[in-house]
Amino acid sequence: MQKKWVVFFCVFWWQGSNDSLPSAEAVMFLKFSLRSVFYGAGGGNDIQWCFSQVKGAVDDDVAEADIISTVEFNHSGELLATGDKGGRVVIFQQEQENKTQSHSRGEYNVYSTFQSHEPEFDYLKSLEIEEKINKIRWLPQKNAAQFLLSTNDKTIKLWKISERDKRPEGYNLKEEDGRYRDPTTVTTLRVPVFRPMDLMVEASPRRIFANAHTYHINSISINSDYETYLSADDLRINLWHLEITDRSFNIVDIKPANMEELTEVITAAEFHPNSCNTFVYSSSKGTIRLCDMRASALCDRHSKLFEEPEDPSNRSFFSEIISSISDVKFSHSGRYMMTRDYLSVKIWDLNMENRPVETYQVHEYLRSKLCSLYENDCIFDKFECCWNGSDSIVMTGSYNNFFRMFDRNTKRDITLEASRENNKPRTVLKPRKVCASGKRKKDEISVDSLDFNKKILHTAWHPKENIIAVATTNNLYIFQDKMN
Amino acid sequence: MLRGRRRMECTLDAQSLISISLRKIHSSRTQRGGIKLHKNLLVSYVLRNARQLYLSERYAELYRRQQHYPDGAALLAGPAACPPPAAAPPELLPLPADAPDREARSCAAARGGAELLEGPVCAAPPELQRAPCRDSSPAFYRGAGPGGGGAAPGLLYAAGCDFAGGGAPHCSSRTTVLDLDTHVVTTVENGYLHQDCCSQCPCCCQPAPAPASPPPAPGAKRKYYPGQEEEEGVEEGEPGGGGVAGGPPFAPCTKRARFEEYSAEHPQDSSNISNLISIFGSGFTGLVSRQQADSEQPLNGQLCSKQALASLGAWTRAIVAF
């Protein structure tokens, strides 16, 4: 800190003695120094993101079952769960920090892998139910075991992940391998004791919440009371108790009496992080409704409606598609919520309904490409977004394996790439830039050379540290900030 | 609304957008995991937007032609002269639809039809050629209503004028409408009203000044059951929600009104036509073959309507049942 002050004064002095206006470079330098002084190394784009790890297959031929469909840190950040299209859940655990390796935080290694959902067949409707894991949500830890909820299109499961590192030995009637002993050979008795064993992590399904959704489940969210949770499909939201599997309450139903009158569907839903009676759900029309469960049993009438009027100059064939909200996330404080539509991220203050307080363009250069993106179906991609632990930075994904971060304080943004080319640990990621039109500068990438098959839909930020998990199609990248 | 849109990189016109969208809907029926309600709803919005642009273009063109021929001799929906036998399906001119549904229903109800499905135009049968050469534009504009903005979204109206074999400019415009609520097929001829009955000869014209306003003739209604066969992937939770005979038209995903037209192609858009043909199979072929039948047989309104009905049924089933 002191060094920076010295530098600051030196520059000021130098400029003053030259009796001229500060040059542009000097001003920039001043700004940088000032910012470092006031915001510290943790602020915004002063974070230097470094490659830490990458998980997943190397080859370019992606098996469909390996496509990652959800990523979620647990409440402490020690565990990182991913779900894939094949119905599997892989959980990574962070190593305990090594005192000798103080320059980096612990690595994430595979902790448990299990098959959460299997493909099913609905005989009544002749429909196959995909096993793809749509969402994973962790429960806060209450005892030695970990619990998470995972869901596919129709069924939600509560999984218990527990460790076993001891086993009883010394049974009287059983051999060590489990065979029964002939009782006549037993001459003495002993008390079995627990002996340490290799750590074994077991995952077992404790509850299965099924048959409550006609349409495809898109969200689950655990209430702050830690007893109930909601699940949302295209037209309905149900409230469950974690202990009760044969019953759920329907709290939102937007299905019209005549399906021909359907104009919007529910795209995401989340409970408020602090108020156990409040939740929000977003729609395909770009609106967010906040509901209070105390108002009535069926929360069809919203308490608040968040909607920004459309800009008529941007009207196109695809206006409805790009205004559809793909993700909604409350800030940790509960004061704000963030929504992601196709081209932008918006931050809403819960106290102001008529427009967002902040809007960040993720990839505005795609607005002129909507036709092609409609043809190749990319316009239907559902990007997620996430907050950092202090709600000062938001992150979301884009194409060409780019992901974007927006610092709400400094109003600066950065584009980074998840690629195996920056493979060495502690390699600082180089900011990327997309050239929308005109002359392409060096190191810039033109819009037409973006790879739309390489998309980052799922990202997660550690709840406390500057560690992020970014999922490309079938790989999981972990980045950390450079620790001094 | 769409006139202010930014230029698209890939120059898709309304018709190709419509065909792409229909293809997406069709392929979603066979997707693993069942039909995605959200995606199909979004595709239907694109379809609606493309249709509105298409309609407004057609409407403008028609208006221009109308100005050209003020005596109303040739209100053409498409290329002049008799359409060749193997031609593209006749043009449809659905109206621009901006009004909300409720308003549409009330204003359509005033005209006696809640949601009208227009049939393709038939060549004028000989017995109707006697009709005076009249300005058929009122027939068109009646349907148009007070401006495009007030028109009912569900109202689809085909105004077409085929020249008789004689080639004389002749305004025997005829429209065939299907009322989806009462399932009555009505043929409107130059402002005169036919009530199409199964058992009666369609030549019993009962000139009525009103446009299609079909009071149900007892026992004479021709019922049209949408989607009798089991439709795959109907995203309707309740058992038996799809394709019950006589039940309400099932359209689990979006408004049926949006799909109650098909993008009529110019004869030169053969690639789009073949795309649509391949998608909708026999329904489309039936439509095309109907044109041939028209020119071969002496047409009467009944046959025309029936065939229009059959082919439209295939269209509607195919489009709606996704």
Automatic annotation (TrEMBL), chain A:
<dbReference type="InterPro" id="IPR036322">
    <property type="entry name" value="WD40_repeat_dom_sf"/>
</dbReference>
<keyword id="KW-0732">Signal</keyword>
<keyword id="KW-0677">Repeat</keyword>
<dbReference type="GO" id="GO:0000159">
    <property type="term" value="C:protein phosphatase type 2A complex"/>
</dbReference>
<protein>
    <recommendedName>
        <fullName>Serine/threonine-protein phosphatase 2A 55 kDa regulatory subunit B</fullName>
    </recommendedName>
</protein>
<dbReference type="GO" id="GO:0019888">
    <property type="term" value="F:protein phosphatase regulator activity"/>
</dbReference>
<dbReference type="InterPro" id="IPR015943">
    <property type="entry name" value="WD40/YVTN_repeat-like_dom_sf"/>
</dbReference>
<comment type="similarity">
    <text>Belongs to the phosphatase 2A regulatory subunit B family.</text>
</comment>
<dbReference type="InterPro" id="IPR001680">
    <property type="entry name" value="WD40_rpt"/>
</dbReference>
<dbReference type="InterPro" id="IPR000009">
    <property type="entry name" value="PP2A_PR55"/>
</dbReference>
<feature type="signal peptide">
    <location>
        <begin position="1"/>
        <end position="20"/>
    </location>
</feature>
<dbReference type="InterPro" id="IPR018067">
    <property type="entry name" value="PP2A_PR55_CS"/>
</dbReference>
<keyword id="KW-0853">WD repeat</keyword>
